[in-house]
Amino acid sequence: MSGDETIRRSGVTLDPENLPQGDEKREAVRSLFDTIAPRYDLVNRIMTFGLDVRWRRKALSALALPPRSRILDLACGTGDFCRTSEKAGLQPIGFDLSMGMLVAARTDAPLVHGDILALPVADASADGATCGFALRNLVELPGFFDELARVIRPGGRISLVDAAEPENRILRWGHGIYFGRIVPRIGGLFSERTAYEYLPKSLAYMPPWPDMQARIAEAGFTNIERKVFVGAHLITAGRSEK
């Protein structure tokens, strides 16, 4: 498979210069992650200097749920959040659209193949949910926040981590160079260059934070907070008791 221009699998094409939408995006994202699954963890550790591990730990700490709480790890990938949740005494269940990622997963938690916009989970059946580096890969965010509100019990919590540009202008300039130029080279060296050319560009899918915050609130969450790191941000909120 050539990585010079496109990723192509099962008739689906991903062109990093022309970001797909709707069903085309869903299939392109599935293909992309099936392709990079075998070395996904390795490339993540290298390109974030291991910070992705720290960000996940901060996300679980911010979740602030007691041991044995049932956690849905959405877009679980190879199970990083699941493993960290288990170590914290929580009970995670992982969900992912990419079968390739689930096959490569290294966790003892139950794993489910499916679209996290339509979870096979009963209403108000989970104490919390995590999601790592997947918001920009969803077909649409409003439906995702509504689905979170459906499956999380009143008083439950969500903790979402994703890539983000730094707020500081100088740091944002440096991040743009690193994420846009260096990360694709790292991806090409260890995995699939085209995939890692797409991932930086996929930040364009993300709405401005005030718009996202408003939509999370509309879905029924309160105490919405955002913490920005260099290269990522953490979004936490609680499910309304009403």
Brief rundown of the structure:
With 242 residues, this protein is of the alpha/beta class. The chain is built from nine helices and nine strands. The strands form two sheets. The protein has a seven-stranded mixed beta sheet, sandwiched between helices.
Describe the structure.
The chain is α/β, with parallel strands linked by helices and 242 residues long. It has helices spanning 22-36, 40-47, 51-63, 80-87, 99-103, 141-151, 169-190, 193-201, 209-219, and strands at 7-9, 12-14, 70-74, 91-96, 111-113, 126-132, 152-163, 221-228, 232-239. The N and C termini lie far apart (52 Å). It has a single domain (1-242), classed as Vaccinia Virus protein VP39 (Rossmann fold). The protein contains 9 helices and 9 strands.
SSE arrangement:
Blueprint: E1 7-9, E2 12-14, H1 22-36, H2 40-47, H3 51-63, E3 70-74, H4 80-87, E4 91-96, H5 99-103, E5 111-113, E6 126-132, H6 141-151, E7 152-163, H7 169-190, H8 193-201, H9 209-219, E8 221-228, E9 232-239
Structure characteristics:
242 residues; alpha/beta; Rossmann fold; 7-stranded mixed sheet; two-stranded antiparallel sheet; 23% strand
